[in-house]
Amino acid sequence: MDLLQSVVVHCPYCGESLDIDVDCSIPEQSYIEDCQVCCRPIVLHASIEDGQASVTTRHEDE
User: What percentage of the chain has pLDDT greater than the value 90?
Assistant: First the structure.
């Protein structure tokens, strides 16, 4: 299993596609990262299941 996995997500503000690297050594994590396009804060929730990373995004104030 790779320790880092690249996942494409969409910014909940501007809709732009973003390439996010997920640390697969942590089974579940949440963190905030600024959009590379509109610079607004995105809440990312990553989980690892069967070696595959899954990431959901939402607005910071949801």
Answer: 87
